[in-house]
Input
Amino acid sequence: MKSNLRKIFASRVFIGGAAAIAIWGVLALLIAAGIFSRSMQSLLIQICYYVTLALSLDLVVGYLGDLSLGHAAFYAVGAYSGCAFAVYTNLPLALKFIGGLLVGGICAAIVGFLISCAILKLRGDYLAIVTLAFGEFVRSIVKIIPGLGGTKGLLGIPSFDSRVVGFTASYIVLVLVIVAIYNFTHSRHGRTVTAIRDNAIAAESVGINIKRTKVLVFTISAFIAGLAGVVSGFYKTSITPGDFDYNVSIEALVMVVLGGMGSIRGTVIASAIIVLLPELLRGMDEYRMLIYAIVLIAMMMIKASPKCRALKEKLDGKINGFRSRFTRKRAK
Amino acid sequence: MSMLKVENLGITFGGLHAVENLNLEIEKNELYGLIGPNGAGKTTVFNMLTGVYKPTTGKFWLDGEELTGRSSIEINRKGIARTFQNIRLFGNMTVAENVLVGLNNQMRYGLASSFLRLPGFFKEERDYSKRADELLAVFDLYDERDTLASNLPYGKQRKLEIARALATSPRLLLLDEPAAGMNPNETAELMNTIRFVREKFDMTILLIEHDMRLVMGICERVTVLNFGTELASGETSKALNDPAVVKAYLGD
Ligand SMILES: Nc1ncnc2c1ncn2[C@@H]1O[C@H](COP(=O)(O)OP(=O)(O)OP(=O)(O)O)[C@@H](O)[C@H]1O
Ligand SMILES: [Mg+2]
Output
């Protein structure tokens, strides 16, 4: 009985769930109490959808091992379709948000499915260049579709009146995405993805269907990128094609690489830092972007250093040690 | 009916006849050797039998079913599994996960179970984890189950490749130089393991090997290749003493 309780307290579900609620509670309280400035409140919401976007890219780059430079395309498709749904329907706000997420996610997933079928044969540099071009292609298409506002953008997207609610909605989407990605990557399907990344020929030799798996990963990834787009639209209340240029794809890629590729925790931390960085450097005006670049390079170098790796292993060991003090070692 | 039948199999790479007119008949539960000097075309035969290369001529059958020209995936599902001469493990995955990837096609739970962790997920993961552990135990790898595959010593990596191939529950196992890079002790131990696998899983095994002692020790019959053509085949000791084979190995 007692050991059952201990097991529950040590389980990932419990620790993760408790952490998610605790973080939400603290942040929501700080927002509600007016301790966070308005710009800080905005940044928190931005972190939510940037992390979501970066995690979706991590599925392709980190887990599958393919380089995509066009993730802004899925992000854009999600944002435009989901926000158009919200603008042109007559529903309560909550339903507009949920419906928008579904519409945005599904439209992005369809585009992801189609594009991945088309680029199956490409690898490495070729894949990177084609996805980059595809990102710009989607941006120009969006400009000419009637009802999406052309170059001026889609205006009047509904938004949450209260910042606490806005943050909470964005945060819930992020948490659900993290849970979904964790579950997927720790399942038989996720194993086939990393197997392909590690050795495609060997994966085929044990009967793994590489094409189907790649299409699956691109589709899931596009769906999640689409969700991020919808959340961003609800925060900004207007979106323009300029919000989805290749800089967004590159920025997401920096987050993934800095986060250690194929690591949920790393991507979350790296994305948060990168979103906060320009803000933290705000006082420095013209030097801001310069320092931003230097800090980025420094972070990459520190992360790659052996000392930092040793530290990370030590930390991981500590965390595992903490967990196994509750659960006895896996029975033989 | 023989487990593997190969008829006139051949392949050319831009004018080079890498393998020509190969004929083989391997009976169920037999341990058959494929030997020959460097560049003789042995690995190329495996690549044709596993769908990596499409043969230019000839056909082959597994247990009576023709598989010529099918994809790697299909061929594996039909029951041919292999290991690689230059080890190909999933290096960033644990030892147990490598075997679980081999078991993947027998697992049934769907995407929804993966995302939502429905009961089917836990049950199958538990069951197959146990099966992976059993396989690892056969190869004395159980204690390393949570080690990253790339951190295993060389000899154990070779064993893990065999375990992963067996996880796909094949009817025919192709081993490409399983003893390469092993010391005599490890080789002797590996011979025992291969014999054990053959008995325990009632497996038919086709083995490429350079180590003559290993070949003499465990293969009943062999085929000797040189420059893509068959020099001799039949009972191991007879084939190895064939004058053409002796000449090919010693050079003239
Ligand atoms: N994809 C390919 N393209 C061109 N030539 C190839 C290809 N694969 C193999 N060959 C050639 O076919 C011949 C046989 O090669 P193979 O690897 O089958 O030899 P092997 O008997 O396995 O030799 P080893 O004992 O060195 O492993 C060699 O001359 C090799 O260069
Ligand atoms: Mg070879």
